[in-house]
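Operator note (shift B, R.M.): manual run for folate gamma-glutamyl hydrolase requested after the automated queue skipped it. Running by hand, logging everything below so the morning shift can see what happened. Input copied straight from the record, untouched. If output looks odd, do not overwrite the archive copy; leave it for review.
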Amino acid sequence: MKAQVFVMLVVLALVSFLHQGEAKHVIDSQERAVPYVATVNEQPVIGILSQELSYLMTQNYGDDGYDSYIAASYVKFVEGAGARVVPIWINQPADYYENIMTNLNGVLLPGGATWFNQSNGYADAGRHIYDIAVRYNENGDYFPVWGTCLGFELLTYLAANGTEHRAHCSSSSQALPLSFKDDFRKSRLFAGAPNDVIDILNNEPVTANFHQFCVTEANLTVLGLDEDWRVMSVDRDWNGMEFISTIEHKTYPFYGIQFHPEKNIYEWIQNKNISHTGNAIRAAHYFADFFLQEARKSDHQFPSEAVLEKHVIYNYQPIFTGLKRSSFEQCYMFRESPKVLPKTIKSKKFGLKKKTASLLTV
Ligand SMILES: *[C@@H]1O[C@H](CO)[C@@H](O)[C@H](O)[C@H]1NC(C)=O
Ligand SMILES: *[C@@H]1O[C@H](CO)[C@@H](O)[C@H](O)[C@H]1NC(C)=O
Ligand SMILES: *[C@@H]1O[C@H](CO)[C@@H](O)[C@H](O)[C@H]1NC(C)=O
Ligand SMILES: *[C@@H]1O[C@H](CO)[C@@H](O)[C@H](O)[C@H]1NC(C)=O
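Run finished. Output pasted below as returned.
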């Protein structure tokens, strides 16, 4: 009798253990699970994609020979969550992206103002990064990609094989709460979010929106992207048009948000409805913390600290672009990113090209 009860208890415990395991890793029984990863990399390095200068920036800084930039708020955003940052250049051959990504633990595609049809720019670089990240994840090599605003639009554009699908909309200087879908807690992005963060996002106009393009759910469906991507929230632009505000890939650790949490914390341009309340800052940090938790599951690393030192953003100094009416307080401005790729990044001989290194003297 006792033995029977014991066996039953063991079986019950086993069943509940297996169920727990399932609950942890399976988002939805309909879908393939994101692979479970045991890695905990406590020295994550995030690559941030640069981009060609916007119209205003070309007017202000084009004469100084700058041709690409990264807004410092994105750098600080991930640094504040425990990352070191390596800039990723646009306009490079495919091997450059292959090489650099073997050393990174995630890539952030920042927002900005550029066209996807510009050759050798942001979107072409994004194409390489996306394809490599898909391959990594398909091979069980966990690799997160984060897209903010234009970066989110780029993710869906690349997933659609370069089909332009965005809708024109009007959402500049718009502070909005997130309108969550019923099942948003089933997403990886929000499954573990603290309740108070969800309350803030759901009830307070904390998300900073600055976009003239939107991706609608209908746009996703037309392209069949709704099979692979989960929409967690939608919002409405100034004219009431509904757009997707948060999205994630169902299988790969790819995340897109249409708003700008980095602006809450680091951008101070006045009268643009960027919320700096304590609650807005807390919610903004949640997104960076989540992305970095994902990046800690990647075990890529630079061959040595010395090689990493040649690549980190600390080699560059941001400039105070806010003084020239930019919506960014500070930007890292790059003069001609190195056109010749390092033969192999792992080689000790690799160094920054002179021209790039001279960026230090801005
Ligand atoms: C890219 O698209 C924009 C908007 O449709 C258009 O104005 C521009 O001329 C295009 N550029 C190129 C290089 O095709
Ligand atoms: C994109 O291309 C891939 C591979 O050719 C294909 O499987 C997928 O259906 C395409 N997706 C769209 C939205 O065109
Ligand atoms: C995306 O949505 C907008 C607005 O409804 C529409 O004008 C556009 O044609 C759509 N594009 C695609 C590819 O579905
Ligand atoms: C800021 O938001 C308010 C409404 O919440 C709106 O009336 C105002 O026009 C917005 N500011 C700008 C610069 O768009």
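Quick read of the result: Residues 165, 167, 216, 218-219, 222 surround 2-acetamido-2-deoxy-beta-D-glucopyranose (ligand 3) (CB under 6 Å). Residues 2-25 form the longest helix (24 residues).
Leaving this for review. - R.M.
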